[in-house]
Amino acid sequence: MLVKAHAKINLALDVLGTRPDGYHELETIMQTLELHDELEITTAPDITLAVQGADLPAGPENLAYRAAALLRERAEYAGGAEIRLVKRIPLAAGLAGGSADAAAVLRGLNKLWHLGLGPAELAALGAEIGSDVPFCLYGGTALVRGRGEAVTPLRDLPPLGVVLVKPPFGVSTAEVYRRYDALVNPPQPGCRRMLAAAKRGDAADLAACLVNSLEPVTMSLHPVIGAIKRELSAAGALGVLMSGSGPTVFGLFKSRASAERAAGMIRQEDCWVTATCFHGAGRE
Ligand SMILES: C[C@](O)(CO)[C@H](O)COP(=O)(O)OP(=O)(O)OC[C@H]1O[C@@H](n2ccc(N)nc2=O)[C@H](O)[C@@H]1O
Ligand SMILES: Nc1ncnc2c1ncn2[C@@H]1O[C@H](COP(=O)(O)OP(=O)(O)OP(=O)(O)O)[C@@H](O)[C@H]1O
């Protein structure tokens, strides 16, 4: 069985406060991208994972492996699976690559092992693996709250071209949240304007409402993020923002063709052209 694991961006992200479990209460609007990893999953006596395209562990440290092991344990399934993962989503980029792989494994094995778990049961398991996994199981556009487990699907946005630019380093999500907590006046933009824009469904309107409370934190550590934002704007993006905890910056364009043209003007090495995606994510 072939399963795609799609990257995400956060069109709006606000941190509402800290929780007793040490995590943060979020309000964020997430969007699936066409950019994806690929997983080939077949039944086998034990769980094995092989990773191509990135230097990642293939044991329990890998979120794809962890998802398979957790599902097998909870479903009390006797067999296993051979998983071959081809990585295309950049690592530690704010694009939820690991969470997308975990979600793809949960969906794939639910079918392959004939477990019959519903979306809510899979999302509850996913939340144990990572905060972005529940959204990755749904895909499309969604309002996400709590630690990341409360997912409300939104109606499809107009299709948009997207340019992703990743500076040549990763960031630790935990460190970014820690530094956010140390801010004296943390930004709290809320997601209401983006929600209203999403309802209206106008591309320029959406691009004008991009907000991310974590952006100033990661940007103060890595000022190059500001330079990348300026470069994407100069290349004609309707709007630009850092995704999640960063460091990837995305630019929104009215079509994939205009995103392709803009990418030709970007001098940064790691630059991808992709688009928003509404089918095939959690929706097959
Ligand atoms: C930045 C986002 O990607 C926005 O979508 C997510 O909030 C992070 O999602 P993720 O990487 O799947 O997060 P996890 O792997 O669950 O957690 C990584 C670390 O981020 C912090 N974390 C994450 C999610 C959350 N709601 N509050 C947090 O404080 C915690 O320190 C945690 O140790
Ligand atoms: N299958 C996987 N793919 C990518 N990273 C993985 C995977 N399994 C474990 N990891 C570990 O998780 C770390 C961060 O992974 P990931 O690429 O998902 O970050 P991210 O895009 O910043 O995620 P998020 O947006 O959810 O915060 C990696 O540096 C890697 O050590």
Task: Provide a brief overview of the structure.
By secondary structure, this protein is of the alpha+beta class. 34% of the residues lie in helices and 29% in strands.
Query: Any idea what the radius of gyration is?
Result: 18 Å
Number of contiguous helices: 10
Overall number of strands: 11
What is the 3D shape?
globular
**Fold-level CATH name of the largest domain:** Ribosomal Protein S5, domain 2
Spans of at least 5 consecutive residues with low confidence: none
- Roughly what percent helix? 25-40%
Write down the domain tally: 2
User: What does the average pLDDT come to?
Assistant: 95
CATH class of the largest domain: Alpha Beta
Identify the CATH architecture of the largest domain. 2-Layer Sandwich
Task: Give the CA-CA distance, first to last residue.
Answer: 13 Å
SSE string: EEEHEHHHEEEHHHEHHEEHE
Given helix and strand content, the structural type is alpha+beta
Secondary-structure blueprint:
Blueprint: E1 2-18, E2 24-44, E3 47-52, H1 63-75, E4 80-86, H2 97-112, H3 119-129, H4 133-138, E5 141-146, E6 150-153, E7 161-165, H5 173-181, H6 192-200, H7 203-208, E8 211-212, H8 215-221, H9 224-234, E9 239-242, E10 249-253, H10 256-263, E11 271-275
Parallel strand pairs: 1-8, 3-4
Antiparallel strand pairs: 1-2, 2-4, 2-5, 5-6, 7-10, 7-11, 9-10
The structure holds 4-diphosphocytidyl-2-C-methyl-D-erythritol and adenosine-5'-triphosphate.
Residues 56, 61-64, 91-99, 101, 132, 170, 173, 244-245 line the site of adenosine-5'-triphosphate.
